[in-house]
Structures are given as structure tokens and as C-alpha cells.
Write a structure and sequence with these properties.
With 308 residues, the protein is of the alpha/beta class. 37% of the residues lie in helices and 17% in strands. The chain has one domain: Alpha-Beta Barrel (TIM Barrel). The protein is built from 12 helices and 10 strands.
Amino acid sequence: MLNQTQLKNLQGAGYKVIGKHKHTAVKLCLWCKKSVKSGEKQFCYKEKFYGIKSHRCLQMTPSQPFCNLACRYCWRDVSIRRPEWENGFDEPEEIIDLSIKAQKELLSGLGGVPHSDKHLKEALEPRNAAISLDGEPTLYPKISELIKEFHKRGMTTFLVTNGTLPEKIENLEVLPTQLYVSLSSNSKEMFEKVQNPLTPKLWEKLNETLELLSQIKTRRVIRLTMIKNMNMLNPDKYAKLIERALPDFVEVKAAMSIGFSRLQGRLKYEDMPLHKEIKEFSEKLSDSLGYKIADEKEDSRVVLLKKH
């Protein structure tokens, strides 16, 4: 799947690439580390909004090299993208076993710095899987079985998808606890510019997913990742798209010029909206959409809108 140089670069960036076929990766979330170090005085917006525990969250992907988009704001290495699955794959049970093992190995490094013993001990037994680290997870051929296996082990699941594979979402036999769909463009022209599709007709496929989303019987969230002066425009157009999906929540979040998005020159520091700008855009979106502003987290530059 990945050559030795690519694997070495990923390892240097804090990834553990695991499994025989090397398509699964685990990486400690910044907020997981902060929560362990601070004894949960610091935590991510998902804990604030939805109640999951940051220090007990496993951030992983079953499809690290595979994605059919190369978004400008993606802080991963889009140069290694493959838009379709290649070669074989590892089984869900093996993926989860190795992911939890990798998480424990990564957490071991926190034992040598000031931390909460209680929270480190709890972190060794994750209770939520954020299937979102890199790539497009619905490209993994056994994504439904993977979700089922996490649930079998008593874990909740947050699945983040770019929404360009509606057939995979429609055919999920087991639904995640929370389904995220990324919506970072409000027109086909913006989609082409901001999200750089690697295969044809993906804007049309995303629109199919929006139509489908209202029928999905789990907690549904649409996330808008905003870049100043690029896609942070015309909230009324976003509202019209969101109205078709009727999600339970909408997150409006600032794109951050970090990681490979900065190293590869796709996003500059000045492209990042301030929290107050995210709040102003969210208020306009709220007016157009009829969803109320339910919460916000300033250090993450994110605002939560909730359906009445």
C-alpha cells in the first residue's frame, strides 16, 4: 500500500500504521493527550457537545491511503491519495485489536510527563472510536462490520465521511452512533476548487447523500469546514443544501493551517477564520436555516447549530 519512505514519514508524524496490509492507522488526538495531562480540565469540543470523553477516544482510520478527494484544508498528506481501494484488506477484528494495542503504546509516552494517573488508566480502555483520522473510511470494504465489531465491544462510534459514496452509506447494515457528513462547498464550482475531486461526478454523489441523510436512523451531523474568502461565502446556499438533509446538528468549524495543509502550501495562516468570524457566519446560517445556535468552543473555533 505505502512505500517505506511514506511509512517512515507517517511514523515521524505520530501515526502508528498497523495490520498486514498497512491501510489502518492510529494517532493520539491532541485533545486526548491534553485531557490525560490535565485530568480532563482540557477536552475537545466533541466532549462538550456530545458527551464523549476525550481521553477515552480512539482516533483511527481503516483507509489511511484511500480517499477520492484532496481537500485544500486537509491536514493530512494528500500526495499519497488513492481514489479507489487497491489490493487486499485486514479483517475488522484484527483492525480493532491492533488499534487498541497501538493506542496503548502511544499513551505509554504520557507516563513520563505530568498527568492524571486516573485518566491515563481510563484512556487505556477507549470507549469511543472516531473513525475519521485520514482517508475516506467508507472505502474500506467492511466498514459496516467494523462498526458492528466496535459496538460488540461496548464502544460508541463516530463515523466521518465526505459523503461521495451514498451507496456505501445506504447499505450500512449497522449504523454508527453518530454519522458526520462533511459539506465544505455550496456549489459544484466551489467543490472543484476547494475539495479537488479525484474521480468524476462526486458533487452529484454528495448531493445524493444529502437527500439520503434525512432517512438515516442515527444521530446525524453535517460539518462545514470554513476557509476565509474561499468557501466561507453565501450561508443561504449552504442552508438550502442542509435543508435537504435535515441533520440533528450542524457544526461550523474553522479550517486550520496545520500539518500537511501548511507544509504542502494548500492553506496559509491568513486563510484561517477567527472564532468571531465563525460565530458571525453561524448566526447568518442560523437565520437562513432555522436551526438555533446551541453551543460553541472558542479554542477549537467551532459553533454548534441544533435543529429545533
